[in-house]
């Protein structure tokens, strides 16, 4: 297939029965199934996530995204009209301005004020006012909060878990506060979870380490760029929104050492893939800190990633395009069809796929 043919978004579609979308986490993180996809043999194997160490080799290195999901979903009303508003905090800039998306019953205007109420304490009289400054062509607003407190503090008081829309819960349940977060989350800033990491328990990580599989951490604060749908027919016309990531000098040195010793770099999640590929230059890893808008699509040539543990992604999404670039579109189409036949659980709270 030519590069021009692979640019057609329609190729990255598939049929998914609605009942296979996981809307609740399993009782245990490490109870998920794992579809193993071997690119060399083209074989598919059905295993459990607990078997992951058996498919990796001593000397391999897991790379995990240590971002922490913030309670970014917000509810409130327009001060001028009283009309309801709900939306999603995206990020705060050094000046303290917020970027956010949302919707209300009427058209918003620059200069008006949103009044945010505590999501889980409707009886509270606490309020946060956001003055809307301007809106870009894609509906992303810049707003000024009427507070000198940090965004992390304000979101903790007013926000709730930013669950994906297909979970159909406006307010995160108690279980969501725990399970829509990796066990190793450390650096607040994500508005969506790096979901491949949700499968890991401390015990599973320890068993990997006992087998000689080490681990490193990177940070990519998952934002709208990861989950905003592709709205154009050609992949080459889709512009990724930037997401902040950091790849430290220590991680860079360690991953280069792993490669030099013959070990494989096993990315946990597509956000880790984007960070690693952004930081891989001229045949080696280099420290990186900044915004990446890397859109990985066929016929991309990978340099920083050898294997990938990931969840099952939405059709026609940048994430399904990414895994198709890594494993090949035909193999991914076959793997997803197999996952549907075998009733795997899809999306954030769903099962896993290991691409070797």
Q: Would you spell out the secondary-structure blueprint of this structure?
A:
Elements: H1 3-6, E1 33-37, E2 44-48, H2 52-55, E3 61-65, E4 67-69, E5 73-78, E6 84-92, E7 98-104, E8 113-117, E9 128-135, E10 141-145, H3 151-158, H4 174-179, E11 187-190, H5 202-210, E12 214-220, H6 224-227, E13 243-247, H7 249-260, E14 265-268, H8 270-279, E15 280-281, E16 284-285, E17 288-292, E18 307-311, H9 318-327, H10 329-341, E19 352-355
Parallel strand pairs: 1-19, 3-12, 3-14, 4-11, 14-18
Antiparallel strand pairs: 1-2, 5-6, 5-8, 6-7, 7-10, 8-9, 9-10, 12-13, 13-17, 15-16, 18-19
Helix pairs in contact: 9-10
Care to describe what's here?
With 356 residues, the protein is an alpha+beta fold. The protein has 2 domains: 3-69 and 177-355, QueA-like; 73-160, Thrombin, subunit H (Beta Barrel). The protein is 22% helix and 27% strand. The protein contains 10 helices and 19 strands. The strands form 4 sheets. A 9-stranded mixed sheet has the order 2-1-19-18-14-3-12-13-17. Strands 5-6-7-10-9-8 form a 6-stranded antiparallel beta barrel. β9 (128-135) and β10 form a beta hairpin. α9 packs across α10. The longest helix is centred in the C-terminal third of the chain and has 13 residues, at 329-341. The model has no long low-confidence stretch (mean pLDDT 95).
